Prior knowledge:
CATH superfamily: P-loop containing nucleotide triphosphate hydrolases
Radius of gyration: 18 Å
Distance between the termini: 38 Å
Strand order of the largest sheet: 3-4-2-5-1-6-7-8
Number of strands: 8
Number of helices: 12
Shape: globular
Strand content: 5-15%
Amino acid sequence: MRDQAEQLRRKLASASYAKEAKTIAVTSGKGGAGKSNLALNFSLELLKREKRVLLFDLDVGMGNIDILLGLSADKTIVDMFAEDLPIHEIIEKGPRGLAYIAAGSGLNDLFTMDADKQDYFFMQYDQLVHLYDYIIFDMGAGVTPDSLTLITACDECLVVTTPEPTSITDAYGIIKHIVTSRPGLPVSVVMNRVSTVKRGKQALERFYRVVKQFLAVDVYKLGVLPEDRTVSNAVIRQIPYILLDEKAAVSKAVKQLADHYLTEPAESPKQPPASFVQKLKQLMMEGK
């Protein structure tokens, strides 16, 4: 662990000139939509394409990235605060060299911490932004005022839903919260667990039209993922499905999502955005 931390420190020293990581919040309107599985497998596919990725599990108390990986994290975000650890010491390594931070349990909301702990988080996070191309936050399902603050501080948001009416309704609700709180934030949508690709694309198109009509915003239709037994087998075996069977339908679909994301990204604001930490600080001050 100390060797790993030292390697990260050396990378930091040599990367001070690099651009900041793009921050992506992955969320869903309800549990069971496949949010964490998508965040994990999408991260692994980006790594395969030689992108530097940090997967940050922020579903504190319900986080399961390490479980999906079949790994036991030595340290979590909770330990960072409890033991005043440098953030480098809580970064774990998974397959393909995936860097991830486990959520742990027992952490009070970041936004209700005292100012010293908040400043500590900001200081530690600032040490990561030049080390990665993407920092992907796996958020808890649903939306709270606190999670909404973090989502809207990100560069973009990826909403995962399924064709089920309750999932669609909840996904619409979370997008409504997002665009109301931060108009212009790029939002992508993935339709998961579809029975066929054709039906999935039809469901995604209907959802897009409803959002366009009633919220007057264009979400980016990132793609669809099929219902596939490989997913449940992967969860049971604690191996990401894109590694368990790269030829499975769902694995091929994640590769297509990565293709679409990297070649046709959601439209970003024309003005140079503030950093994640700057936006988060501003939003937290506005909420007081």
